[in-house]
Every structure is written in structure tokens, then in C-alpha cells.
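Notebook, bench 3.
Goal today: get a predicted structure for 3-isopropylmalate dehydrogenase from Vreelandella olivaria so we can plan the truncation constructs. The sequence was checked against the plasmid map this morning, with no discrepancies at the termini. Length recorded as 166 residues. Pasting the sequence as submitted so the record is complete.
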Amino acid sequence: MLEVTILWREVMERLAPEYPDVELSHMYVDNAAMQLVRAPKQFDVVVTGNMFGDILSDAAAMLTGSIGMLPSASLNESGQGMYEPCHGSAPDIAGQNVANPLAMMLSVAMMLRYSLNENAMAERIEAAVGSVLDDGLRTADIASEGMRTIGTDAMGDAVLAAFAKQ
Ligand SMILES: NC(=O)C1=CN([C@@H]2O[C@H](COP(=O)(O)OP(=O)(O)OC[C@H]3O[C@@H](n4cnc5c(N)ncnc54)[C@H](O)[C@@H]3O)[C@@H](O)[C@H]2O)C=CC1
Ligand SMILES: CC(C)CC(=O)C(=O)O
């Protein structure tokens, strides 16, 4: 494990000059997990391998309130991508109409922006999601006092209605 880490650091030191606007520092993954929770604003770009990234991104998801809020893009050099919510199939809540659909919708917005060059449409989706949240609508995973808790279907309908008004 540590030998791989040393190689990782050597490669990052070699590549860093190609990204002069990114300040490079190194962190072991256990500390990174703690720092993400303790002081998340210190991070901007995190470069790591698949397994560590998978675990750190789930921890980071909770900074947004729920993993149901977090979209993702996996991009190649020419902008082709695979877009998906960070979460999995959530089998424990399947069929209960409680899953948060916003990460999926925000993943579509990322696809429009990064692969299809449709930035205006991406912004429209994001604004619709923002306006529904501003209106106090919440699925169960992000429910809080004073807000109205609704199901997956109703959240989808609310975003669609807000989208039509944008
Ligand atoms: N990117 C991917 O393709 C991923 C796929 N998976 C797959 O999904 C399946 C289930 O894996 P789990 O470990 O249970 O992870 P999961 O992400 O499906 O669920 C973890 C927890 O988060 C909750 N959750 C997930 N999405 C939610 C949403 N939209 N709204 C509200 N709550 C939500 C679930 O109810 C569960 O309590 C497995 O087959 C796994 O391999 C899991 C994670 C990522
Ligand atoms: C850890 C994996 C089995 C599931 C996962 O998180 C993924 O597929 O992204």
C-alpha cells in the first residue's frame, strides 16, 4: 500500500506543473476522510484512486445533506462522459416513493453542460431544482423542521413545474 502511495506522490509531483492554478498538497486517505468532515472548504480538487475516491465521495456527499443530492460525471479527455448520481440503487428504500431524485436530475444537467454543450439548458434544470428547494420542498432524506416533506413522485413533478416556468 505504502509503495503505491509513494509512486502516486511521485507522479503527482511530476504532473503538478501542468496545473499551475492548483496548489498541490498530499494527504493520507484516513486523514483526508477526517479533514473532509472537519474542514471541507480546504478542498477544491481531490485526485485519488478509484477505491479511495469512492469512499471519500460518499463521505463528502453528506456535506450536501444527503447522497441523494450529489450528481457525478466521469469524463474522458474529449468530454465524453458517464453521468450518474453518486448513490447506488438504494434497495433498502425501493418502491417506497421516498428516494430523492435530485441527484439524478442534476446529473442530467452535468451531461448537458459537459458533453452536449447545452449550458443554458443545464442552468435551467439547476435553477428549477434550486427554486423547489427554496420553496421548502424536501424528500425524507433532506427533511428538516419548517419544510414540507414530499415523495419522489411529487419532487419530480415540482421540479418539472419549476422547469417549465424558467
Ligand atoms: N455508482 C454506482 O453505480 C453505485 C452502485 N452501487 C450499487 O447499488 C447497490 C446498493 O448499494 P448500497 O451500498 O446500498 O448504496 P446506495 O447508495 O444504494 O445506498 C446507501 C444508502 O443511501 C440511501 N440512498 C441512496 N440513494 C438515495 C436517494 N436517492 N435518496 C435517498 N436515500 C438514498 C439508501 O437508502 C441507503 O440507505 C449495490 O448493488 C451497489 O453495488 C452503490 C453505490 C454506487
Ligand atoms: C463499492 C462498490 C461495490 C459500489 C460503488 O460504490 C460503486 O459502484 O460506485
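Residues 29 and 52 are 7 Å apart (CA to CA). DSSP finds six helices and four strands in the chain.
Flagging this for group meeting.
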